[in-house]
Design a protein that fits this description.
alpha/beta, Nucleotidyltransferase, domain 5, 2 domains, 5-stranded mixed beta sheet, globular
């Protein structure tokens, strides 16, 4: 079964053809990084306009690389939540028009479900149930994936997501957008004990995340140090990056370990999302999985970021489970992963 996927939830315009939820036939991504780098972050209106300009060409290239005609697909899968509403609507409108013209069903896919499904594309042995931790620019979620289309919510961020905190701290340090990758590199050469940044916690919610206080602590530290005459040089950036990254990783891994202690089924662990590309987080999750004797699945770096192959993969499982949206399907800026 061939699923054509469309992803446009933020600043990547993507299209893909995936076979049976597991085999990538094509995966095309048009990035907007250079556009948004001028502003130090994603500008929603600019993102929506760029999606409109790129989406037809990206879709055409996906079919060309897959070596098939549009008539050969079985369904169209599209990200409909969560994300920037204008960006989502651009991809959704294109997908609905395309599906209608081809007389194909349209399948709505939750963005975070897609990130988790990125692992299906490289790990044929991976099957639910498993524990999933999804860490991205807009979301940090801990959940139990009970089946391909059934998710049990465990914990979420109460304020900033981990990826958002990375980008905001990187901006204060004068690092280029996207800041997470730059901080990852600097953290490898910095001293993680240089600054005592603490893990964020939420009273009465041991599985929930909070990164706003940590982000504020970094910003205040940078301001205080510069007021004392400290120059923001590479050594300072490296130490801040290392200390901040260590606090983020401890926060995420701490919640995951708490769940592993409570989980008696010995479920595998899946790491997903854009921040899953962070080398320090990947290493910490590997060590944790080894400590508890669990298998850890992570997507390769090229599938950590937003792409349409992950949407087409999850779309396959949604479609075979009976998901088939009407033409009135709408986009949502926020939506729980457990709602689909």
């Amino acid at each position: 079964m061939l699923i054509f996927g469309i992803e446009s939830s933020c600043d990547e315009t993507a299209a893909s053809v995936v076979e049976d939820g597991r085999i990538i036939r094509s995966n095309v991504v048009a990035t907007q990084i250079e556009l948004h780098a001028l502003y130090g972050g994603v500008v929603p209106e600019i993102a929506s306009r760029a999606h409109t300009e790129a989406i037809s060409g990206v879709a055409e290239e996906a079919f060309r690389q897959a070596g098939i005609s549009p008539e050969e697909i079985d369904a169209v899968a599209v990200t409909y939540a969560p994300g920037l509403i204008g960006a989502l609507l651009t991809g959704l409108s294109f997908a609905k028009g395309f599906a209608y013209s081809m007389k194909k069903p349209i399948v709505p896919v939750h963005h975070l479900r897609g990130h988790i499904a990125a692992n299906y594309l490289v790990w044929p042995e991976l099957k639910p149930p498993f524990i999933a931790i999804c860490v991205s620019g807009g979301n940090t979620e801990l959940m139990i994936v009970e089946d391909y289309t059934r998710y049990r919510f465990v914990g979420t961020t109460r304020d900033d997501a981990a990826g958002e905190a990375f980008d905001k701290c990187a901006r204060v340090l004068g690092l280029p957008y996207p800041g997470g990758a730059a901080m990852d590199r600097l953290a490898s050469v910095g001293n993680k004990h240089a600054y005592a940044f603490h893990e964020g916690s939420v009273d009465g919610a041991p599985y929930d995340f909070s990164f706003s206080g940590l982000k504020t602590a970094v910003i205040n530290t940078v301001h205080t140090e510069t007021q004392k005459g400290r120059v923001i040089d590479d050594a300072f950036r490296a130490d801040i990056s290392a200390s901040f990254t260590d606090a983020v990783v401890r926060t995420i891994v701490g919640r995951l370990e708490h769940l592993l202690k409570e989980n008696v089924e010995g479920l595998d662990i899946v790491l997903a999302g854009g921040v899953a590309a962070n080398s320090h987080l990947r290493t910490a999750c590997e060590e944790l999985a080894g400590k508890y004797g669990r298998r850890l699945f992570m997507p390769p770096l090229k599938l950590c970021g937003d792409n349409a192959a992950m949407i087409a993969s999850q779309g396959y499982y949604e479609f075979v489970s009976g998901a088939n949206a009407s033409w009135s399907l709408n986009a949502y800026a926020t939506k729980s992963v457990s709602e689909g």
